[in-house]
Amino acid sequence: MIHYQFEISLDPFEPWSEILTAYLGEIDFEGFYEKDAVLYAFVSKERYSKEKFQGIINIIKSETAVSFVCNELPHQNWNALWESNFEPVFIENKLAIVAPFHTIEKEFERIITIEPKMSFGTGHHQTTYMMCEAILHNSLEEKAVLDMGSGTGVLAILCEMQGATTVLAVDIEPWSVENCSKNASVNNCSRITSVLGDIDIVKDQTFDMIFANINKNILLNHMTTYVRVLNPNGFLYLSGFFSSDAQEIIKVAKALGLNLASQKEREGWCMLVFNK
Question: Rounded to whole angstroms, how far apart are CA atoms 248 and 184?
Fold first, then answer.
């Protein structure tokens, strides 16, 4: 599979790199990293829309200077480039998210080894970081968990480490499902089921906790199903959106009978926790 690599320069770089990342994620861009004040963004050739990309660039241009170059990359080079720029993630002294080629000198309560490949969710992004923090501060003993938009499987893996009895990890991308399964195996997890599909794959199952780190529009479309499959007294964790979008999501959730339990922000990104 051929991928495009975009090298995007922004001036000023912050906070527009994060904003641009969110916009690009909504038009099927699959991976990002930042290096020397340049945003590197990747999208498969078959999913790339020049019109949608240019539309987003035009929006950003009104706020910051933008220039970019685009290169074609074979599939294997995409992975090699992604891995070579994957730095370890440390959350307090509780969790280290590392690649197989990293060495750790400090002790952590939990260590997750991730081969990111083309999947989202390494802990670098603010939303994944907040989700990991939340899981670390919860006991999931005897809990049934749904990880919607599972990506690398890092949240699913951490949920099992925190005691979850079952974890259903769902993603719409075949390579994410494969990557999640492999990462679960590498981390000696046996209670994670990684499946290909969208929200309609969740039928008669119910869950004590749901984690969904996806963009705002998808979360809103999924909300009715989340409420239906969430057990009484269960918790719904939502992230993947800007703080400015929080009130719209809160309004929809409350209309469906959910109570806002907490709200957290990190560098302009938001995580909302609801209780049923």
Answer: 34
Do 246 and 132 fall within a single domain? yes
Residue 88 lies in a domain: no
Looking at the domain assignment, is residue 86 inside a domain? no
Residues pairing with 40 in the sheet? 7, 33
Q: How far is CA 78 from CA 31, 69, 183, 216, 257, in A?
A: 10, 16, 19, 27, 44
The total domain count for the chain is 2
Q: Where a domain ends, among 26, 50, 81?
A: 81
Could you identify the residue written with the tokens 């899981």? 135
R_g of the chain computed on alpha carbons: 18
- pTM assigned to the model: 0.75
111 vs 57, 90, 188, CA distance in Å?
Answer: 38, 9, 12
Domain membership of residue 89 (yes or no) is: no
| 109-138 tens-digit pLDDT | 899 988 765 445 555 678 888 999 999 999
Q: How far is CA 251 from CA 146, 246, 248, 270, in A?
A: 23, 9, 5, 15
The Cα–Cα gap between 158 and 116 comes to 15
Is 98 within the bounds of a domain? no
